[in-house]
Amino acid sequence: xxxxxxxxxxxxxxxxxxxxxxxxxxxxxxxxxxxxxxxxxxxxxxxxxxxxxxxxxxxxxxxxxxxxxxxxxxxxxxxxxxxxxxxxxxxxxxxxxxxxxxxxxxxxxxxxxxxxxxxxxxxxxxxxxxxxxxxxxxxxxxxxxxxxxxxxxxxxxxxxxxxxxxxxxxxxxxxxxxxxxxxxxxxxxxxxxxxxxxxxxxxxxxxxxxxxxxxxxxxxxxxxxxxxxxxxxxxxxxxxxxxxxxxxxxxxxxxxxxxxxxxxxxxxxxxxxxxxxxxxxxxxxxxxxxxxxxxxxxxxxxxxxxxxxxxxxxxxxxxxxxxxxxxxxxxxxxxxxxxxxxxxxxxxxxxxxxxxxxxxxxxxxxxxxxxxxxxxxxxxxxxx
Amino acid sequence: xxxxxxxxxxxxxxxxxxxxxxxxxxxxxxxxxxxxxxxxxxxxxxxxxxxxxxxxxxxxxxxxxxxxxxxxxxxxxxxxxxxxxxxxxxxxxxxxxxxxxxxxxxxxxxxxxxxxxxxxxxxxxxxxxxxxxxxxxxxxxxxxxxxxxxxxxxxxxxxxxxxxxxxxxxxxxxxxxxxxxxxxxxxxxxxxxxxxxxx
Lengths: 384, 199
What we know:
The complex is a heterodimer. By secondary structure, chain A is an alpha+beta fold. Chain A has a single domain (53-383), classed as Cytochrome-c3 Hydrogenase, chain B (Orthogonal Bundle), CATH 1.10.645. Helices cover 45% and strands 13% of the residues of chain A. Chain A has 15 helices and ten strands. Chain A has helices spanning 63-68, 76-79, 87-102, 108-136, 142-162, 184-206, 210-216, 224-229, 235-239, 246-249, 270-294, 348-352, 356-360, 365-375, 379-383; strands at residues 23-27, 30-31, 36-37, 39-45, 48-55, 171-172, 175-176, 315-323, 326-334, 342-346. In chain A, helix 3 (87-102) packs antiparallel against helix 4, helix 4 (108-136) runs antiparallel to helix 14 and helix 5 packs antiparallel against helix 6 (184-206). The longest helix of chain A has 29 residues, at 108-136. Chain A is globular. The model of chain A is unreliable at 1-14 (pLDDT under 50). Chain B has a domain at 5-123: Beta Polymerase, domain 2 (2-Layer Sandwich). Helices cover 24% and strands 22% of the residues of chain B. Chain B has helices spanning 5-15, 42-51, 69-75, 132-143, 185-191, and strands at residues 21-24, 34-37, 57-66, 90-99, 104-112, 121-123, 146-148. Chain B has a five-stranded mixed sheet. In chain B, helix 4 links the parallel strand 6 and strand 7. Classes of the chains: A alpha+beta, B alpha/beta. Chain A binds chain B through residues 56-57, 60, 62, 64-65, 100-103, 225-226, 228-233, 242, 244, 249-250, 312-318, 320, 327, 329, 331, 333-335, 341-342, 344, 346, 350-351, 353-355, 383-384, and chain B through 1, 26-30, 32, 56-60, 62, 64, 71, 74-76, 94, 96, 98, 100, 103, 105-106, 108, 129-135, 142, 156-159, 166-167.
């Protein structure tokens, strides 16, 4: 007990203005919570975030310039490296925009194959996301191990089909590269049937988990209008209750043939963003079951599709798909030669970071890690 | 669902009579025609489209370098009679707008700079669509378009000290960015340019 207040009169104080007492932290680029090489220049007042500026470009290789100097087909394997967790959706978005640019038709079977591959990719992405976000919360390793156990099963399927676990290079303009191997569809059925119980198990661990609730609830929400205005798409937007899924809103491929629902959140906090991905995986399983049931025989690529020496007619096209992380679009401009005149990727991870600062202001530094994790970025796509 | 671009053009002309705006046809099979908006009225057009026509999502912003202006007019064709291409090359910014409520899109807007000099400028639409913030910074960085009114116009992908704009068509990459411990083939060949001339 201190009886004499005067002994504090000479207590050391920090000199200068309040501004000097702010702490500047460079979070990243080498930091496990940044999911790659991503840096945030954070200004802290105690624990509270006062300003946050993301710094990009550590993985920049000017993907768009490289693609402009390459033929249409030779950019296809390079799209695998954009969002390297889900190469097959990248393949699809690029193939779709070239097909739109050149007016190429697709055989029925190839459409079904694409849907099956895209929904498997969505499962992979959302499952891996569960592991990563729990790692961000301190459950370092075990959740990721269970997630990767399931992901590995699907990667084995991709290896059977495309020859590569991740760098698939599988879609072509007007179809796919090769047909499904014998017995492949049955293997997918087995995995789809086993996936529900895995999700049940994962949900049982997570939904009411006290740490998850206290770290995620009421963290990082923004009004719907701000999210739309900020260009946020994908599960991030739907977690806030905006019913906007490109598979329904602007159907591409054959998505209008399947029965599935769009899960919507209420608050748009990090908890909603996690749960929405659980629900989306269950809807993906529904789509997969229907697609496997209806899978027709036929060509896996249009018989007249031109693979080598392909030239697109003069014009431009923007095509987009509902990637696992949001709207993935490609804007191509053709001047009639074998190379695109302009090749632009609309990367969902990059644009979803636009509102990162707004979500984090006034919260603790520890919340920044959760919010960044809930956006679900891949730096191969952010930096391109 | 594709937009009915003619009716949108008429609505814009009706509401904003001073705006210089024209329809550009896409000759390709995609059928995505576009509206060429003069730089001075770009922000007004965007605000009208957002507030009156429910185009609430600016999804994509693309920068394009056109050192040969005639090429640009082949991709976005001006069908009015007696139309001539500008003489000097220019930079172009293309915007893809969607409506989340009406579920239509893309509505393609394009806006051109006067030339390709360092002073080339286009007004920033960040005040209307926040999603343009990083994308405009990227175009500033890689193409060198100055977006007037942008709140924080800095390089985003290249480092701050970098000069030049790598996405321009006439950009020449330096010999090598990094020290290479065992230079070979193409690198050695390039390096010869710096050797003193053999007499």
